[in-house]
Amino acid sequence: MGKAELFTEITNRNALRREAGLPLLNIRDEIESQQNAFDWKTFIEIRDQHRAVRDEITARVRLALAAEKGFDCLSHGGRLLLGAKVEAEFLGYLRGLGVKIPKSSGTRYGSRS
């Protein structure tokens, strides 16, 4: 969905909210939020298409950690280290393909002001 469609949708929602006496949505924040959600959906679809590559990276990193540090990657710390290394390498692989990695803004609660 493009920004023009998002803008139209949000202004329509604001018209309904105005009639109901509800606070209006911040158009810029809503467009950014919805665009980020769309970017994440697209990214997850692409990520899932490359699952075999991620599995290969995981196997290689697991072997390297076992050889280098003697990690079995079964402990909590071992799994965290494995996950961090695999994630960094896999995201680098996707960036190399030109895949846009969406920003992670964390969870926001309450007012955005």
Would you kindly provide a written description of the structure presented here, covering whatever features stand out?
This protein has 2 domains: 1-44; 50-102. It is built from 4 helices and no strands. With 113 residues, it is mostly helical. The radius of gyration is 21 Å and the shape is elongated. The chain has helices at residues 3-20, 27-49, 51-69, 76-96. The two termini are 25 Å apart.
Helix content: over 70%
Determine Rg (CA atoms, Å).
21 Å
* Tally of separate helices: 4
Strand percent estimate = under 5%
Structural class: mainly alpha
Gross morphology: elongated
Provide the domain count: 2
Secondary-structure element string: HHHH
Mean pLDDT: 88
Distance between the termini: 25 Å
Low-pLDDT segments: none
Sheet with most strands: none
Count of extended strands: 0
How is the secondary structure organized here?
Layout: H1 3-20, H2 27-49, H3 51-69, H4 76-96
Helix pairs in contact: 1-2, 3-4
Quick recap:
The protein is mostly helical. Helices cover about 70% and strands about 0% of the residues.
